[in-house]
Amino acid sequence: MEQKSTINFGAGPAKLPQSVLLQAQKELLSYNSLGISVLEMSHRSSDFSKILNKTESLMRELLNSRPSSWTLNPSASYVYYCCNETVHGVEYNFIPETNGVVLVSDMSSNFLSRPVDVSKFGLIFAGAQKNVGCAGVTVVIVREDLLGHALKECPIVLDYKVQAESNSLYNTPPCFSIYIMCLVLEWIKNNGGSIAMENLNNQKSSLIYDIINNSDGFYVQKKEMKLWKKQFLDGAAKRGMISLKGHRSVGGIRASLYNAVTLEDTEALATYMKEFKKQHM
């Protein structure tokens, strides 16, 4: 039976690169010809330690510099911001200057989708299930001088000093999720790194936003789109496009164009949007 083609525009767990899924499938029963699955591998084994070390090495290599473009002078012990909030579709394309105050950021939705100057931050955390892997693991990059300042009430597994001293192996880690993340990081590296991801993501977003901006209000009139929402989603599903329904708290329609969503995937959505508008104008 022919495999049905489906394009996943979900906000997370999000689409993974096809080559990553195929490699994971190939190595599922026997990782690196060891005769055991990575799902069975002990986190204390030398083979898993190699995966962990390679993941860290790839992460360092893929993070590049980007200058800041805005100045902030807060009177706080730290400044927190989520640079890409996907519920309402808000993204900051700059790094705020905090004049020495520790900057903490949740980058779950755009981590490694573009270059970022890590030196500007005291702490970065990101769920991997959007751009760099599958659900089950969170990436944390913390400045070394901030280690050891956890609150007394902080669970020990969330004490970054403990995790750093244990090479992220204080407790049994999600081995398979880390393995998948390693494969995705390799895929990003082999496809040009974070700069190439940024260029590709700009192309994809431009395709969709150009249609919205030139739709004479068709895709921004809430009343009309509420009436057509079900028709739009049903039509998209028939074309193999899933997870376009907006967040439950705001409704509407949402297309998440993470790294693994291809230009061809985005063009398919753009074509459908043009056809749908033509049919309902």
UniProtKB/TrEMBL annotation:
It comes from the Eukaryota. The keyword Transferase applies. Gene3D superfamilies: Aspartate Aminotransferase, domain 1, Type I PLP-dependent aspartate aminotransferase-like (Major domain). This is phosphoserine transaminase. Residues 8-66, 69-223 form the Aminotransferase class V domain. InterPro entries: Aminotrans_V_dom, Aminotrans_V_PyrdxlP_BS, Pser_aminoTfrase, PyrdxlP-dep_Trfase, PyrdxlP-dep_Trfase_major, PyrdxlP-dep_Trfase_small. Pathway: Amino-acid biosynthesis; L-serine biosynthesis; L-serine from 3-phospho-D-glycerate: step 2/3. It catalyses: O-phospho-L-serine + 2-oxoglutarate = 3-phosphooxypyruvate + L-glutamate. GO terms for cellular component: cytoplasm. Belongs to the class-V pyridoxal-phosphate-dependent aminotransferase family. SerC subfamily. One of its GO terms (molecular function) is O-phospho-L-serine:2-oxoglutarate aminotransferase activity. GO terms for biological process: L-serine biosynthetic process. Its cofactor is pyridoxal 5'-phosphate. HAMAP family: SerC_aminotrans_5. Keywords: Amino-acid biosynthesis, Aminotransferase, Pyridoxal phosphate, Serine biosynthesis, Transferase. Its EC number is 2.6.1.52. PROSITE patterns: AA_TRANSFER_CLASS_5. It is an enzyme of class 2 (transferase). The keyword Amino-acid biosynthesis applies.
